[in-house]
Design goal:
- This protein is an alpha+beta fold and 427 residues long.
- The protein is built from 13 helices and 18 strands.
- The strands form five sheets. It has an eight-stranded mixed sheet with strand order 1-11-12-13-16-10-9-4.
- Helix 3 packs antiparallel against helix 4 and helix 5 packs across helix 12.
- The relative contact order is 0.14.
């Protein structure tokens, strides 16, 4: 949620930055009008309360003297009714104002390049060598079927499209990836592991910015008003909702594995084949709570932690700095990490590392004190995939495929898999 004071003091700048993000700024004028009316009502209510206090004192004085206080009592009652009427108006305006503010996206950071779409994103780093093969290669779907490690038809049978079944060595490799990433982030990158719930309430989804804008893409349980999480970012970031942290404890760094659930309404086409876009997938998430002064340094460190996963796996990747028009609703700045798919001959996103500044913290009322006696301020929140497994699995299978049809397992995963290569299982 944006700072209302910022909108009030710099409306033109806010409008321009929203336009840079591709968002209409028409609600800003309505917000300013509601804010002006709200503040005037607050002044009017305070003035009436002072009048009521004076009238109450006058009633007491008259009664003490034994004089008739009927008229003053009636005036006190009428003031009370007027206060209630204004309070009702104030409540209605506040609800309308909050509803509009919830739908305004975060502003892009001043360092973010202005652009309209993903075509304007900038490649800022590339790592690794694009593999070359002396034989005709297969795509991950063909590899998965040949080795009997991924079952798309049976997944569709039991759940529907976008819910594959991992089998045998495929299931073991998926589990190995998750354990490897959790161990890396906790033992080498300083994150504390969390095992969060996979369902959350409406306040949690609102706190991280999924609601109200993206409710159509979420799996919702109406009877309990609970949502299957689209990412572990939601429960992990909301761990500290409505708390006041100690400045000496920052930065706080958490990582978590979770299954992720996304309806992806309307997402069909070439990029939805196989493991490229799923309704349920696994991911290790990194979340940071940091002071505003250090948040952009922490973003660079977060990016490095995610890149390290791919470097240890030996997978070529590149990093994109997203332009203003390609930023998510809540992000102020974001880097995407993409891994190479030899069969698709394209780059596949496996991580987004974002700084939300105080946008999520305002929605969650999450603050910190720099020192014990200082006034609470909003923290900055960051998160990044560290990493998502489906497209990572695509790259692993395709990059490491061998001419005999087997797939080599990266060295760092072998202590988790207990095998160095995946071959066709006979059972």
């Amino acid at each position: 949620m944006l700072d209302l004071k910022l909108i009030r003091e710099q409306p033109d700048a806010v409008k321009q930055r929203l336009k840079d993000k591709g968002s209409e700024a028409k609600d800003i004028d309505t917000i300013l009008d509601l804010d002006s009316r709200r503040r005037q009502l607050i002044q009017d209510v305070e003035a009436l309360k002072q009048d009521r206090n004076q009238a109450s004192q006058q009633v007491g004085a008259l009664k003490k003297k034994g004089e008739d206080a009927t008229d003053v009592i009636e005036r006190t009652r009428m003031i009370g009714q007027e206060i209630k009427s204004l309070d009702d108006q104030l409540k209605a305006i506040q609800e309308e104002l909050d509803g509009l503010l919830e739908r305004i996206p975060n502003l892009p950071h001043e360092s973010v390049p202005v652009g309209k779409s993903a075509a304007d994103n900038m490649v800022i780093k590339a790592w690794g060598k694009i593999p070359e093969f002396a034989f005709e290669i297969s795509g991950h779907m063909e590899i998965g079927e040949r080795l009997d490690i991924i079952d798309f038809p049976r997944g569709s049978k039991i759940s529907g499209r976008g819910f594959p079944v991992m089998k045998g060595a495929g299931a073991r490799l998926e589990r190995a990836l998750i354990n490897f990433m959790l161990d890396l982030h906790t033992t080498q990158h300083g994150y504390r592991e969390i095992m969060p719930p996979f369902v959350v309430n409406r306040d949690s989804m609102r706190g991280t910015g999924q609601l109200p804008k993206m409710e159509a893409d979420m799996y919702h349980c109406p009877e309990d008003d609970l949502f299957l999480i689209p990412t572990a970012e939601v429960p992990v970031t909301n761990l500290l909702r409505e708390e006041i942290l100690h400045g000496d404890d920052l930065p706080l760094k958490y990582c978590a594995y979770s299954a992720c659930f996304r309806r992806e309404a309307g997402s069909w086409g070439k990029d939805t084949r196989g493991l490229l876009r799923l309704h349920q997938f696994n991911k290790v998430e990194m979340v940071k709570f940091v002071s505003p002064e250090t948040s952009y340094d922490e973003l660079e460190l977060l990016l490095g932690d995610a890149c390290r996963v791919l470097e240890l796996l030996g997978l070529p990747y590149r990093v994109l700095e997203l332009c203003s028009g390609d930023l998510s609703f809540a992000a102020a700045k974001c880097y995407d990490i993409e891994v190479w798919s030899p069969a698709e001959q394209t780059w596949l996103e496996v991580s987004s590392c974002s700084n939300f500044e105080d946008f999520q913290a305002r929605r969650m009322n999450l603050r910190y004190r720099k020192i014990a006696a200082s006034k609470p301020e909003f923290v900055h929140t960051l998160n990044g995939s560290g990493l998502a497994t489906p497209r990572l699995m695509v790259a692993l299978l395709e990059v490491n495929q061998q001419e005999d049809g087997s797939v080599l397992v990266p060295e760092v995963l072998r202590k988790y898999t207990d095998f160095a290569a995946i071959k066709r299982e006979l059972r």
